[in-house]
Write a structure and sequence with these properties.
β1 and β2 form a beta hairpin. The protein has a six-stranded antiparallel sheet. The chain has a five-stranded antiparallel sheet with strand order 8-7-11-10-9. α17 packs antiparallel against α18, α19 crosses α20 and α22 packs across α24. It is globular and about 125 Å long. It is built from 28 helices and 16 strands. With 762 residues, the protein is of the alpha+beta class. The longest helix has 69 residues.
């Protein structure tokens, strides 16, 4: 070792090229490198601040989009239940019954299944001092643990949303507290529905990007109350007097950032939710980070200088050997053709470390590209939603940035709607929509056509914006999409489309047109393709109500002739088939009302015009409307017959019983699906079954399911969760509670006792 060092030193002293020339270059290179390091760190720091604030703004926009999507989804579900569900209105305004409690429990479970962000739903009937929570037994107001909530209700507005609240509730005989966002929907001063969002779950969904402890994020209502925050202690606080919030509210721009004593606050004012989004990070963390980077650069410079010195001396002894080795390793890392390896010596260990670092850098770069791609897809979907709703007010360069290129002169809006949605499992709809959107984008994109998709629309719609060079849209592309969906997902879809010249202003109008055209799926039927201009031109100018066909239907009912009534119904539907959609709904409602007037002593069927219209609006095809009309005619004929009335009702009840026996393991089995099978209203179906069988439909379904549960517990080793799914009870907590209430045992206790007694427990 000492001998080698002496050799290097002699080379340094005796080699004039290195001592005279390279020594000067060495000193100059060191000075230039240090100056460059200082300038680079200074510029990188300011660039980093700009990049961080830009990234924070993008994450705020993402949080706003996620928040808007969650709250709109919850609000849509709550409004649908509050305004349309008769069971909910009765629970808030009529006295307690066991049947109503079971119906409310089922309704709350359905709401939570439909919208996963809903944590709890309460129905308050303060007039009768009852509170439905979806669990049994229900609460009496004097036993309700959350007195603060009871005091809020009388003083609240008719529509109060997203109010921070600490909910008190009982769980296994223990009083618990949970931070929630409370929304109240008042039916009267003593009746309301309360919907709760778990604050922790809401935070985790909205603030997914803010996992750095040095960052913070919060969402404030317009009155300064904190709805969501990465700091749990801030939840529900009133920050309207906070100096930072005041300072932000004084800003004229809707988004930007401000500095305050070393902390940078990025903000965004929501135009849709009337909320304020604020995130912050300390600039000192950036400074400290880049001080460390500067130190690393200096250290790296020192190491480079040292390596430069050693390699220069070594080069004076053998200038080509290390160069050849370095070149060989670099070629291997970059997957290039390597030179023929020789016996040259070199700093092999140093080069291995450099190679390892290069691979690490490449892995980080690939990860960054993947994250950027996911963000671009989300942003593209958001921009598409803004375009079709007419809320896009940004520069068109933003469309180019996220790969939405509308360079061709013509646009077509294509709406894809799932057919026969009652037969599709609710949890599968999102997967099907995602698959159709992605595959459709590929099928509809070719050399002269580009397609962009979004599912930000109705529950069963996928929207495609197609930019094409030809003035006429190629309908064969849409037919190929229909065939693909049928083969890939086993379902059918209906399509409606409208075309226009390429302008951003016409996109929202095309979307309204295709939605209007899709209404005529009722006439065209499932798996149809509807062009807006064509369907509008086909609509008949005759919009008068076909009184003669109504008289024919009523006459057939009076004659008690089902076949003649069916023919008269077909004639009526043919008469209104070419009318506008709104007239089809109105005229059909009038005919059903006329048929109802012939039904004697039918107090169980709801004949209100608004209920009839709502039922018709939910229908997908005229065939469904035809089945309803024929069923109503048969009801009228039966009600007018004086003989064998009891036997006919028993036949209906027996038919319902057989249907339940065949389908009780279906998790989607409901009163509505049973009523649809029987061709009756839900209330009528319940009463006919109860009067003739002596047991309610829900109780009968439970008996069938729990009989099968007990058999499986006694004879198989399946888990409780697997058995619950096998008999159609997907909710584990509901199955556990209901089984214990029904038998007095938990599923595990029942299985152990059955094995011990060698026979099932009755």
């Amino acid at each position: 070792m000492k001998e080698n060092i002496n050799k290097f030193w002699l080379q340094f002293k005796n080699n004039r090229l290195f001592n005279k020339t390279m020594k000067s270059y060495f000193i100059i290179a060191c000075l230039v490198f240090l100056a460059y390091a200082f300038v680079m760190v200074f510029n990188v720091y300011h660039a980093a601040i700009d990049q961080l604030t830009s990234a924070e703004q993008k994450m705020l926009s993402q949080s706003e989009t996620t928040n808007d999507f969650i709250l709109r989804d919850i609000n849509s579900t709550a409004n649908t239940v509050f305004e349309n569900e008769l069971v909910a209105i009765q629970a808030m305004s009529q006295p307690y019954t066991t049947m109503r409690s079971a119906q409310i429990s089922s309704l709350i479970s359905e709401m939570r299944t439909r919208t996963s962000a809903i944590y709890k739903v309460y129905f308050f009937n303060l007039k009768d001092d009852y509170i439905y929570t979806g669990e049994n037994p229900i609460y009496h107001t004097k036993n309700f643990p959350d007195k603060e909530l009871l005091s809020i209700i009388p003083n609240s507005d008719w529509y109060t949303v997203n109010l921070p609240h600490t909910l008190k509730y009982e769980d296994n005989m223990e009083l618990r507290e949970e931070q929630v966002l409370l929304s109240l929907y008042k039916y009267s001063d003593t009746s309301c529905m309360a919907v709760f969002i778990n604050a922790n779950v809401f935070n985790s969904m909205v603030n997914t990007e803010f996992e750095n402890k040095k960052q913070s994020m919060m969402i404030l209502k317009s009155n300064g109350t904190v709805m969501s925050s990465t700091d749990p202690e801030q939840f529900g606080k009133d920050l309207s007097e906070d100096k930072i919030v005041k300072k932000i509210n004084q800003q004229t721009k809707n988004s930007g950032y401000i500095n305050d004593f070393g902390t940078i606050y990025c903000y965004k004012k929501s135009n849709t939710l009337n909320s304020l989004y604020i995130c912050s990070f300390r600039s000192s963390s950036v400074i400290v980070s880049y001080i460390w980077q500067f130190a690393i650069i200096i250290l790296f410079a020192f190491l480079l200088i040292l390596l430069y010195f050693i390699s220069s001396m070594h080069m004076s002894m053998s200038i080509f050997r290390p160069f050849k080795k370095l070149r060989s390793d670099i070629f291997r890392i970059l997957d290039l053709s390597e030179p023929v390896p020789g016996n040259d010596l070199g700093t092999e260990q140093d080069l291995m470390v450099i190679s390892k670092n290069l691979r690490t850098i490449r892995a980080k770069y690939d990860s960054m590209k993947e994250t950027e791609q996911l963000y671009s897809e989300t942003k593209q979907n958001e921009l598409m939603y803004c375009l079709i709703t007419g809320t896009f007010y940004h520069d068109t360069t933003e469309l180019d940035e996220y790969d939405i290129c509308l360079s061709f002169p013509h646009n077509t809006m294509l709406l894809v709607r799932l057919d026969n949605t009652k037969s599709i499992v609710r949890s599968d709809i999102g997967f099907i929509q995602y698959g159709i959107a992605n595959s459709g984008t590929e099928l509809l994109t070719n050399e002269g056509m580009r397609a962009y998709s979004t599912t930000y629309s109705d529950d069963y719609d996928i929207i495609f914006l197609i930019n094409h060079s030809s003035p006429i849209f190629d309908i064969e592309c849409a037919k190929r999409l229909q065939k693909y969906v049928s083969s890939a997902f086993g379902i059918t879809v209906s399509l409606s489309y409208d075309s226009s010249d390429n302008s951003l202003e016409s996109i929202a109008e095309m979307y309204r047109n295709v939605k209007e055209a899709m209404q005529y799926r009722m006439v065209k039927g499932h798996n149809s393709i509807i062009e807006y201009t064509s369907v509008m031109s086909d609509i008949s100018s005759n919009r008068e109500y076909p009184y003669k066909h109504e008289k024919a239907v009523v006459a057939a009912i009076n004659k008690r002739n089902p076949q003649e009534a069916e023919d008269a119904v077909d004639a009526f539907l043919n008469a209104i088939r070419d009318m506008p959609y709104s007239y089809i709904v109105i005229h059909s409602s009038v005919l059903i009302t006329a048929i109802h007037s012939r039904i004697k002593q039918d107090k169980n069927s709801d004949s209100r015009s608004d209920v009839i219209s709502t039922t018709i609006l939910r229908m997908e095809t005229l065939e469904e409307l035809r089945e309803i009309l024929i069923a109503k005619c048969n009801d009228a004929i039966i009600s007018m017959s004086s003989d064998e009335t009891t036997d006919k009702y028993m036949m209906i009840a027996n038919s319902i019983e057989l249907f339940i026996n065949d389908h009780y393991t279906d998790p989607n089995l409901s009163i509505d699906s049973i009523a649809s099978y029987a061709g009756k209203s839900a209330n009528y179906t319940r009463n006919i079954f109860k009067q003739n069988k002596g047991i309610s439909i829900s109780e009968y379904i439970l008996e069938k399911r729990f009989a099968e549960v007990k058999r499986l517990l006694a004879n198989t080793s399946l888990t409780s969760q697997a058995i619950a799914q096998k008999v159609g009870m997907n909710s584990g907590s509901y199955f556990y509670t209901a089984f214990k209430k029904y038998t007095g045992y938990t599923p595990e206790q029942y299985r152990r006792l059955t094995l011990t007694m060698k026979e099932p427990i009755q």
